[in-house]
Each structure stands twice: as structure tokens, then as C-alpha cells.
Specification:
The structure is a homodimer of 346-residue chains.
Chain A (H helix, E strand, L loop, with lengths): L8 H13 L11 H8 E3 L6 E3 L5 E11 L11 H17 L4 E11 L6 H17 L2 E9 L4 E11 L14 E5 L4 H12 L8 H7 L5 H10 L4 E5 L3 H12 L2 E5 L10 H5 L4 H7 L5 E6 L10 E2 L2 E10 L4 E4 L5 E3 L13
Parallel strand pairs in A: 4-5, 9-13
Antiparallel strand pairs in A: 1-2, 3-6, 4-6, 7-10, 7-12, 8-10, 9-12, 11-12, 13-14
Helix pairs in contact in A: 1-4, 3-4, 3-7, 5-6
């Protein structure tokens, strides 16, 4: 993949405008996304700032996320279009975790001159695909030149007033749920590191790592039905994120290890020490939802929402510790061993 | 300035919470900022995303800006508190340029472990001072570990619907104005580079470079009075930014060089080749406002607004070129020679 260099910031902006100029947002299942998104964004790229407005009775949800070469992705291993997809997907996941829908985003990108050609175009292809999928328009941003690729994405979403789901509402006795399967993205990352360039980006075992799908449908369903007491997304790993949810709610938790929806690994992987339970507890980047439900509302939950499995994996406790128990009555403290950039650096 | 290292991301977040936890926003001249800001931000730091809502009849203005060590500031020359102040001030300047007021911001910061102690605290002191001054609450963000300091700031502001001032409204015959004095920040940067550590951060000639003050009062006055046809802030330098305003409005411009409000330089500086006109035309980082006014409305403009001088410096033309003329009838094309990260790198 050879990149042509570019002459100025205007060239970079022109590529971005070209990629997003003709973007027509997908009409989502609710038939409203495209209209909602253009109603929401009344002034997009090209001015000092973007202008957004909500429908009456709605609030705006704002979040931002780093996506840095060498910290959050590997410049040599990750395809440019996956970088584009994922930088938006992970910020959108925070919007899903509030029970909201994304509407528009700001893209800050810094990159070397030699990547401002073909690499940038591939990056924008992935980003545009994600933007269509999530119903989220490009509203503006900032570009600059830099030795390494640095990305920061801000997403603005919308939620009906009072329907947002916070981290702080869990109460002792609530059941703890997770969506999907945990540890898949971490396993994907390991495979990617091993295979280096010898992988297909369509490989199903890499898909969740390369092209994660934030749980927008599930998040919104939970918020609209009003069955959920607290929610967040799983970005750093269950052991770290559950601790945060418990801290925000001033509660503790006990997780039943045998209930966790884990990945299946091959015999070879197992022999090499790949442990599905450890992946599920500490693996990052899954972008599944972690949420709590009052016990008396739990029976109103189906097993699948928007095509995604949801699984009860434990219970909220009064004692402010996060514990893990196995099927044999043994239990211990679950240490936060998920992703922490200040603890492990690459 | 020795920094203590920190153990985890939670430590960094704790320092940020401590710095902003007790922040009570200054009640501005209009007596409304503090109330407006807390009404605007209904959920701040500590959840997956922040929640903001506007008063009826208002829209939300969104912008983001990079502030990267080595590109936008010099790690060894710039005091940490100036880095904190300026990263917010420059993003707020985009809000001023829309005629809006800032309400809250998201802070993304990546830094080395050894700067996550005293340096971070000084940075937060400057940031907090700016946040108070601009009436802008910290609403959330993202932190990570990195070899160099990387900052991205997103600001959300508010403007009455239909009162926003865009870049695209200039028409042939409009007068072109700038606020304040141009080239001061560039001169400050040169002094800072020369003096290295031997400078006082209170030096008045460095102040605009270290602690720029976005023109919020002027921007809002212009928007409320409805006298302005197009506006943007001067971040990269007049020659580059005026070109952008003209492109957005599909017009040209002619600047009268003798009308430009330039800095005064010492004899020594002049001998060294420091040229006030070149500083005013191409110097970046001033964060003054550039705006256009219909000729028949120009007489409604005072010479000072909110304590800031405004100066007519030229006229919008039909021919889509940006020209510069001197008092002797000579004129030529004004080349865009302001800051462009993809053209000159440090």
C-alpha cells in the first residue's frame, strides 16, 4: 500500500470532504435515523464549529475517545479501514451505554505526510462505513501533521430526557448482565499479533477486534423499556469496568464464573495457555454492555434483544467488594486486571 | 519542577476530579454564566458520557482542537499552566467566532507517567483558571499514557437559534474588520524561543502567546446586534484565515496594509528583521476575530466593544482573490503564508 504525499492541510480536508460529502445516512430499522441525523446537525464541516439541536424533550449526550497508534492500535498490524471503523465504534459504544443514539461526530486526526494519501483514504473508507452503520454524520474536527497517527473522536448523541441510563443506579440484589460473548476481542488481538500480515480481515475470529459493533439497539431497548438500573460499556475488561460501575453505585458485586459467556478456543490455543475465563474477565475492547436489573424486572428480559444474547452473570451486593465465585462454592476478590494505560505500556 | 509518578489511570482521574471538583463558575458580567452552565450540563464527569441540554430556542455549538507537544506547544519552553490555559482558550475561540458562549468541555489528555504528578497539577491549575474565566465546566474526557503530551479539547457552547455567525455570509462591498492587534502572539513565541527559561510568565509581551483571551464578549455582541455578515477567529494568521472566509463566502478581498493594527517592535528587533506587517499578515495564534459588516451598518459599530478595539482593514470584493494594497496604490496577491502543519513541520 503506497501512499502519495500531500501538499497542505487543505488536501487532507479535501479528502475528508470527498469521503463524507455524498454520505447519505442509512435509514435504520426505526426508519428515522437519516432524518433525525440531518435534523440534529444544522451546520456541519467547514465553519469554526458545528451546530446541533435536539427535538423537544431530548438531551444531548457527549463523549470522546483517544485512538492512538502504538497505544490503542498497531500501525503495522491494523488495516487502515479497521482503524477508521474502530475509532468511531468505540466512542459510539459510550453513547449506546447511556441508552442513547449517536447523531454526529467530530474527527481529530494527526498523521505523517506520507500517510495522508492512500492510507488516509482507506481510513476514511472504514470510518464512513461505520458512520453509515451507526447513523452518525461527520460534523467537523481538526487535522494536523505528526510523526505518528493520533486520533480523537467526539460523538454527540440524543436521548429522551430522563431515559438516560447512568452507572450509578445499581442496588444490592440487582442482577448483573452482560451482552454477547466476552474476551472475543482480546483473543482476536492475540491472533492478529501472531499472524502479522498473514490474516484476512474477514476472518470471523478477528472481526470483533477489528470491526466491533456497539450495542446501540440493545442499549436503546433497555433504556426505552425502563428495565435497567445501571449500565456501562465494557471497554477495558469486565474486572476493571465492573469495579467502576460498583464504585459509581456505591455497591459491590459477585460474579459467577461458570455463568460468563466465554469464547471457545482451539485445543492448540488451550495448550498454549489461552484461558477463556481469563479472557472474559480481563480482556478489553469487547464493547459489550454491562448492566444491572432489579430482580423483579428480570423476567421481563428476553434472551435475545436486537439479535444479541444477554446473560445474567452475577448479583449486586451491599458489601463494597467485587468478588468472583465458582460453581463449587469457592470465592475470592476479583482484581481489576483489565486494560490500564498507566500500568502497562507498550 | 519535579514530578511524582502515579500508579494508575485512577490516580490521574483523581487529580482531575480534585482540580475541578469544587469549581464554582464565575458569574460573568451578564450574571448568568454560572447558572447557565450548570443548567446546560446535567451530567458531568464519571459516567460513559456527559448529558447537556439547551434552553428552548437555543442551539448547541460544537468544536474540537488539537494541542500537541512539539506541534502546538514546546514541552521545554511552555509553562504547564499556560498549556492548560491555552488548550481550552483556543477551542473556546471557535465558539466566540460563532457568536456563541461556551458552556462545557471534554478533555482528552495523554501524558508520560513522570508528568502525571506536579506537571499535571500545574496544567490543571491553568486549565481551571481558563474554565472559570470562560464560564465552561469540565464535562468528561479520556486519559491515557503516552511518551509525549497530547491534548484534545472539545467545547460545547450555546447560541440563540438563527443568531450564529458563519463564515459564508460575506458579500462584495462588505467592510473587513479585525479585533485587537495582530502578530502579538507570534512575536511572543519568538521572544519565548530566544529567552528559553529566562522569562517571566507575567511579561506583558508574552501574555498573548501564553494566555490568549478568546473574544467572547465581542463575538456575542456582534451576533446579538446582528451587524455582522461573516466571522471566524484568527488562529493560523490573517493571510490564511481570510482566504478561508473568502472561500466559504465565494468572494475575494483587498486588505489595506497601512490600516492593519500591528505590534510595535524595538529598534533591536527591527534591526534583526522583525517586521510588524509580516507578523500581522502571517503570524498565528492571535485568537482575534475576523469579521465582515455591510457598509451601511458599519457606522453602528463603536471603536471598542467589551474593551477590545475593532479596526476596518479592507473590503470584500467580487473577484475571488485575496489582495493586499499599500497606501501608495500598489497592490498584489496576498499569499496564504500562515501556519499550515502539513507544510512546515518542527
Amino acid at each position: 500500500m503506497r501512499a502519495r504525499g500531500t501538499g497542505s492541510e487543505e488536501d487532507v480536508l479535501e479528502r475528508i470532504r470527498r469521503a463524507f460529502g455524498g454520505l447519505r445516512l442509512r435509514t435504520g430499522r426505526d426508519g428515522l435515523r437519516s432524518k433525525a441525523s440531518s435534523r440534529f446537525l444544522s451546520l456541519g464541516m467547514g465553519d469554526d464549529a458545528a451546530l446541533v439541536s435536539t427535538a423537544p424533550g431530548y438531551e444531548i449526550v457527549l463523549t470522546c475517545d483517544w485512538f492512538l497508534a502504538g497505544t490503542h492500535f498497531l500501525q503495522d498490524n491494523h488495516p487502515a479501514d479497521a482503524v477508521g471503523w474502530k475509532c468511531l465504534a468505540r466512542a459510539v459504544s459510550d453513547i449506546a451505554a447511556m441508552g442513547a443514539l449517536p447523531r454526529c461526530f467530530l474527527l481529530s486526526v494527526a498523521l505523517p505526510r506520507e500517510l495522508a494519501g492512500a492510507w488516509l483514504d482507506d481510513f476514511l473508507t472504514g470510518l464512513r462505513r461505520a458512520a453509515r452503520k451507526f447513523g452518525c454524520s461527520l460534523a467537523g474536527g481538526d487535522t494536523t501533521e505528526r510523526r505518528e497517527v493520533l486520533i480523537n473522536v467526539t460523538v454527540a448523541g440524543e436521548v429522551r430526557r430522563g431515559r438516560e441510563v447512568r452507572r450509578s443506579g445499581a442496588r444490592p440484589g440487582d442482577l448483573i448482565y452482560v451482552s454477547g460473548c466476552l474476551g472475543e476481542a482480546e483473543l482476536g488481538l492475540r491472533l492478529l499479533r501472531e499472524r502479522k500480515r498473514g490474516f484476512s480481515r474477514r476472518d470471523v475470529r478477528l472481526r470483533k477486534h477489528l470491526y466491533p459493533g456497539p450495542r446501540l439497539g440493545l442499549g436503546r431497548w433497555l433504556s426505552e423499556k425502563g428495565v435497567v438500573s445501571a449500565m456501562m460499556d465494557l471497554s477495558d475488561g469486565l474486572s476493571s469496568d465492573l469495579r467502576r460501575l460498583c464504585d459509581a453505585s456505591r455497591v459491590g458485586a459477585v460474579i459467577q464464573s461458570e455463568l460468563l459467556p466465554t469464547v471457545s478456543v482451539t485445543k492448540l490455543e488451550s495448550n498454549r495457555g489461552v484461558d477463556p475465563l481469563q479472557l472474559a474477565l480481563h480482556g478489553g475492547d469487547d464493547y459489550e454492555l454491562l448492566f444491572t436489573v432489579r430482580k423483579n424486572k428480570a423476567k421481563r428480559l428476553p434472551r435475545l434483544v436486537d439479535g444479541v444474547a444477554i446473560t445474567a452473570v452475577g448479583e449486586v451486593t451491599r458489601t463494597r467488594e467485587v468478588m468472583i465465585a465458582d460453581g463449587n462454592g469457592r470465592s475470592g476478590v476479583l482484581e481489576s486486571r483489565g486494560w490500564d494505560p498507566f500500568r502497562k505500556s507498550k
